[in-house]
Amino acid sequence: MDCRYSRPESLAEAVAVLCEAQEATEGEAHLVAGGVALGILMNEKLLAPRWFVDVSRLAELKGIEASEDGGLRIGAGCRHREVERSPLVAERYAILAEMAAEIACGRIKNRGTIGGNICLADPQGDPPVAVIALRATLRALGPKGTRDIPATDFFKGLYETALGPDEILQEIRLPPPQANEGAAFGKFSARRAMDYSSTISVAVRLTRDPASEQILEIGLGLGGSGETPIWAKETEKAFIGRRPGDECFALMRETLFAEIEPLADDLYSQDYKRHVAAVIMKRTVEKAWQRSGGTA
Ligand SMILES: Cc1cc2nc3c(=O)[nH]c(=O)nc-3n(C[C@H](O)[C@H](O)[C@H](O)COP(=O)(O)OP(=O)(O)OC[C@H]3O[C@@H](n4cnc5c(N)ncnc54)[C@H](O)[C@@H]3O)c2cc1C
């Protein structure tokens, strides 16, 4: 079967080519960012793209910059390694560097992109979990213009996102950090870093009320705990107005067990994954709490 390859020179051209490619192939066109996931899916015959639109060199998808409101803008085409090593990320959102450090190995980090990872929407992926907890906005460009999608609404099903087939994720926009804020990323994997098929990850961002020493706000993202990266919104409620401690964690465990439906696999049962998710969440909340200035 014929397969075409295009390398547009600008983001606007990429959108136009993607529209043409989707129409010509009845939806069998794919963007190429790092090509890491595409290569594997094609090798395993799960995907047979008929038109590749290569966006890997587009300057408009690159760069990590402070935004005017004090937040951060990360180009979708930034490689995991750039996120891990960025001084701006380290200064404002160290949780993202902590998350990127946990991805696979140097070879994957040097090729895979944060945007490609988010658009793949693998339930095991680490960046989706972090952007959910941080309440990021995902900015997409399509033929009808720019669209901002809250990360909490982005993951719709197994490998399914809110993006249209003709839309390109342009950047990840992070809100400015708050006073008395702490964030942390935790991950469990019994296997080697290169095999991430059976991992559980948790991202936490919280703010502490210094007067009451309670959690004022919290964002929780979970990976490996269902068909999609999960926004644990019910479990978030279990933390609001409480101080991390035995009572709060018991309530979290009960709520989390009801909220997530991990998929059993060759290694772990659903119950075991629920248990691990609760343990990693407890540890990660404790770490975020301490980073917010809270005492144990
Ligand atoms: C051995 C191995 C271990 C790994 N371990 C981990 C891990 O521990 N944690 C983790 O999080 N990930 C892990 N990954 C995934 C990896 O980090 C990549 O992020 C992921 O494969 C996708 O990134 P990519 O840039 O290569 O995307 P690509 O393969 O280029 O694209 C993936 C999909 O996203 C679409 N896409 C890409 N860019 C855009 C865009 N800007 N807008 C819209 N759609 C777009 C493409 O059309 C395609 O459908 C691992 C991968 C491998 C092979």
List keywords for this structure.
296 residues; alpha+beta; Uridine Diphospho-n-acetylenolpyruvylglucosamine Reductase, domain 2; Uridine Diphospho-n-acetylenolpyruvylglucosamine Reductase, domain 3; 3 domains; five-stranded antiparallel β-sheet; four-stranded antiparallel β-sheet; 11 helices; 14 strands; 36% helix; binds flavin-adenine dinucleotide
Short overview:
By secondary structure, the chain is an alpha+beta fold. It folds into 3 domains: 4-54, Uridine Diphospho-n-acetylenolpyruvylglucosamine Reductase, domain 2; 59-174, 2-Layer Sandwich (Uridine Diphospho-n-acetylenolpyruvylglucosamine Reductase, domain 3); 183-290, CO dehydrogenase flavoprotein, C-terminal domain (Enolase-like, domain 1). It contains 11 helices and 14 strands.
